[in-house]
Amino acid sequence: MFVDKAKIYIKAGDGGDGSVSFRKEKYVNAGGPDGGDGGDGGSVVFEVDPNLRTLMDFKFQHKYVAQNGESGKKKNMRGKTGDDLVIKVPPGTVIKDYETGRVAADMREGRRTLLSGGKGGLGNARFATPTRQNPRFATQGRKTKGHSVVLELKSIADIGLIGFPSVGKSTLLAACTSARPKIAEYHFTTLSPNLGVVRWRDKSYIMADIPGLIEGAHEGAGLGHDFLRHIERTRMLIHVADASCAEGRDIIEDYEVIRRELLSYSKELEERPEIVAANKMDAPGSDENAKRLRDYLKPRGVEVFEVCAAIGEGTEALLEKASEMLDRLPAPMPVAEDGVIEEWALEKEDMGFDVVAQDGIYYVEGSVIQEILAKTNPEDPDSMRHFQKLLNDFGVIKALRRAGAKTGDTVSLEGLEFDFVD
């Protein structure tokens, strides 16, 4: 089974919490704080594996979560960092945000970190000062946010073989490369793109046998969308036509049907450089049909090459022309990425807050407040003094004054209420 599209859920590991601990040693009274920091969470990394050809692995597993960082330990020991989660994908996999459709990465080679692990929290040893020698609080590790993404496989090839089913595309691929695709005399033998390496002169090119298209492919008929996706990355096309005109078909009409499908799917794809391989030239009547097609396409500047792929006849002239065209064509550009990766790094996307006065209560909400509360232990006096310092440092007190808050007014911080003291 060929799978070239999959939806999965990915999440980086959360950071481990900082530890609250104090030295306890024989003959040592009132040992100081020694709580260690939490470890960072593991990241989600995508890596290209050249040996993979489909997204089959994602058909059965849909959730991928990296390891969390461990909490800090006593004796200033930092928690263990979570292991990165490496997800292997075939070359040509495009990763998109499921909700917006924006492109996060175009995996052509190497590896990419899509989601960074959360930072570990700070242990209480970090908060010791000459005036606060025994802090009884630590900070929590940063929590990360999961995302649903869509993986789309778009084959990367220099040459794409297109045409109706059973016109001989797979046979031509086998004749031009070392690939050995499944070949049989019935429609839709090829259900997934086959790739092969063309070695011509002192150069090499990737050739892709795209499964047969039919009329209505741009609307999804015959899995058309899935097949057309793999033509998008090709630098040029070889349109394989059946010169035998088997089953009463017309070679010119068949050619025009495929061209209309390309145009309906993408104007850019319809304008992709192409040449035509009139195949099955050993069949009766093939000479006349090939000539009709050649005369029809000559005004358009499209060359027709006569081949018999089954015995490799005519492939040299075809490959010579293809090599000449590829030398003039630019390398394929990667899919434009929309910068989603940075926004996905952590759940905390900003450090802002809003102050809203309603019915005599001042409501303060935002990620900065969540950050401050995460570092606060309401039961510990030292932690509360640190809490007041953070409110000043982040400008929350100043913003409350500007909003009109006076001593004795009620302030609600993400649901936590207290009296404002100026």
Protein model, in words:
This protein is of the alpha/beta class and 422 residues long. It has helices spanning 169-176, 224-228, 251-265, 267-270, 286-297, 315-328, 340-344, 367-374, 381-393, 396-402; strands at 5-11, 44-48, 63-65, 85-89, 93-97, 103-107, 111-115, 147-153, 159-162, 194-200, 203-209, 236-242, 274-279, 304-306, 354-358, 361-365, 410-413, 416-419. Strand 5 and strand 6 form a beta hairpin. The radius of gyration is 32 Å and the shape is elongated. The model is unreliable at 181-191, 214-225 and 345-351 (pLDDT under 50).
Comma- or semicolon-separated keywords:
elongated, alpha/beta, 422 residues, 6-stranded mixed β-sheet
Percent helix among the residues?
Answer: 10-25%
Instruction: Name the helix and strand elements from N-terminus to C-terminus, one letter apiece.
Output: EEEEEEEEEHEEHEHHEHEHHEEHHHEE
Largest sheet: 6 strands, mixed
Strand content: 15-25%
Report mean pLDDT, rounded to a whole number. 82
Global geometry: elongated
Number of helices: 10
Please state the CA-atom Rg, rounded to the nearest Å: 32 Å
What strand line-up does the widest sheet have?
Answer: 10-11-9-12-13-14
Strand segment count: 18
Gap between N and C termini, in Å? 69 Å
Low-confidence stretches: 181-191, 214-225, 345-351
SSE-based structural type: alpha/beta
